[in-house]
Amino acid sequence: MPEVLIAGGGPAGLAAAIALAECRVSVTVVDPADCIAQTRAEMLAHGAGVIMQRLGLGQVLEDALRIKAVESVWGTAQLQSHGATPGLGLHSWGVDRRSLSVAMRARASAMGVKIVKGRIGHTRKNDTGWQVDISENGNVRTATSSYLIDATGRPSHIARRNGATALHGPNLVALIWNTPNEAEPIMVAEATEDGWWYAVPSRCGSTVGFVTSAESAKRVQNAPGTILEHAARTLTRIPIPKSTTPCATLDCRSAVLDRASESGWVATGDAIAAFDPISSQGLFNALSGGFFAGNAIADAVEGDAEAPMIYAALAARTAERTHASTHLQYAALPFDTPFWRERANLNFKRQHSETKAEEHAL
Ligand SMILES: Cc1cc2nc3c(=O)[nH]c(=O)nc-3n(C[C@H](O)[C@H](O)[C@H](O)COP(=O)(O)OP(=O)(O)OC[C@H]3O[C@@H](n4cnc5c(N)ncnc54)[C@H](O)[C@@H]3O)c2cc1C
Question: Over the stretch 317-337, which tens digit does the pLDDT of each residue have?
Fold first, then answer.
């Protein structure tokens, strides 16, 4: 029986697995996509360089595109430009999520982490530890472990099944397209009346996203050509995708759990706190949070029962600070429209019902 079972093999789950393997704790990661993400470019904040090196992933940064500046057109039409780490003039990285997952999976496997393709369903706790159901292709089997790490991303599957409640900010959805790179390695963001657009380059091409309300996203899905025609007329800096159909529609609301650890389980990455992509902090949070969650569970295995609680308190504080600074972008009200007004105040709402990740390929 593995000491630790990790639900979810995204950046947080694999970072936790690498940390645990380093501490010689036996660990299994369960993920429905075998830990391999779809291609999409995301911006990795400069500060993540240290944790990437620590996880043995320095080569990923060597291979990634350096993003030298962020340009934003926020309402009043003038172009604001700053270094990718505002105020410091430091670069960030444009990372392809698929390449990152391939590298992290290889690193974890090389360190002895077992990777199982499947989805964790029901979980039961008894005196000796956990029993969890893992389903794959309609077959369900049961696995056991002493500890569980919830790295399932926004669904927070383990935490919510064990009594935690997710609190969500106002609805927010991203429609994304993968496109060829523009000439310059910069990230661009541009506000419109009913949302904001972004373009992030990576070595595997750029991802262009339109972040908007759920209602507006539904209208776009019903008539995809119209949004691109509107974009072509109004946007000044964003490259307009050629395909009318987005490659994915992703939930990107701010979210936080009301508790992130209890006896025998701990949550990490987006499962504990998910950030609006405007913050560009999600990946950094997943990599560093996963690393520290793994170390906290390794300490617990050694008998330090408080370590996961200390980790959870630090993670909650980080989430609080990031959410507080992120919503200022909305409070700047680049347009005085319902989209911006509704999101100018960050009001978290409780959501008790069990939801699936609102991610679906179109
Ligand atoms: C549109 C968009 C743009 C973004 N852009 C940026 C950016 O530029 N920079 C940045 O830093 N961040 C960005 N983010 C945030 C970043 O993508 C996330 O913060 C990051 O993916 C979180 O990693 P994670 O490992 O916690 O979760 P995920 O990457 O969501 O991984 C969770 C994994 O768990 C698996 N899983 C789910 N349920 C189960 C289950 N029951 N059993 C087993 N496995 C399960 C999933 O299949 C998945 O593989 C963006 C997010 C969005 C939506």
Answer: 999 988 888 888 898 889 999
